[in-house]
Amino acid sequence: MSLFLIGLSTKSYAINPDKYVVNEASAENFPLASKGKIASILVDNNDFSGVLKVVGHLENDLFKVTNLHLNRVNKISDTADFVVIIGTLGKSKIIDQLAKEGKIDGNELKGKWEKFTTQIVNNPSKGIKKALVIAGSDKRGTIYGIYDLSNQIGVSPWYFWADVPVKKQSELHVLPGIHSQGEPKVKYRGIFINDEAPALSGWAFEKYGGFNAKFYDTVFELILRMKGNYLWPSMWGRMFYVDDPKNADLADEYGIVMGTSHHEPLARAHAEWANFGKGKWDFNTNAENLKAFWKQGIERMGNKETLVTVGMRGDGDEPMTQGTAIELLENIVKTQRNIIAEVTKKPAEETPQMWALYKEVQDYYDKGMRVPDDITLLLCDDNWGNIRKLPELDAKPRKGGYGIYYHYDYVGGPRNYKWINTNQIERTWEQMDLAYQHGVDKIWIVNVGDIKPMEFPTEFFLDLAWNPEKWNANNLEQYYTQWATENFDKENAPEIAQIIKFYTKYNARRKPELLDAKTYSLVNYNEWDNVIADYKKLVEKANSVNEKLKPEYKDAYYQLVLFPVLASSNLNELYAATAKNQLYAKQGRNEANVYAEKVKELFVKDSLLTNDFHTKLSGGKWNHMMAQTHIGYTNWQEPKTNVIPNTKRVFYDTAVNPAIAIDGTEEIFDSNNKKTIVLSSFNSLENKASYIDLINRGVKNFSFKITPENNWILLSITKGTIHAQERISVNIDWKKAPKGITKSHFTVFAEDQKFNVEVNANNIDPSKVQGFVENNGCISIEAKNYSKAINGDIIQWTVIPNLGKTDSGVTLKPSNHKSIEVTESSPRLEYDVHFFSTGKVKVHAYFSPTINFSIGDGLKYGVAFDAEKPQIMNINADNCENNWGKSVSDNIKITTSLHTIEKSGNHVLKIFGVDPALVLQKIVIETETGELKESYLGPPESFKK
Question: pTM of the prediction?
Answer without folding.
Answer: 0.96
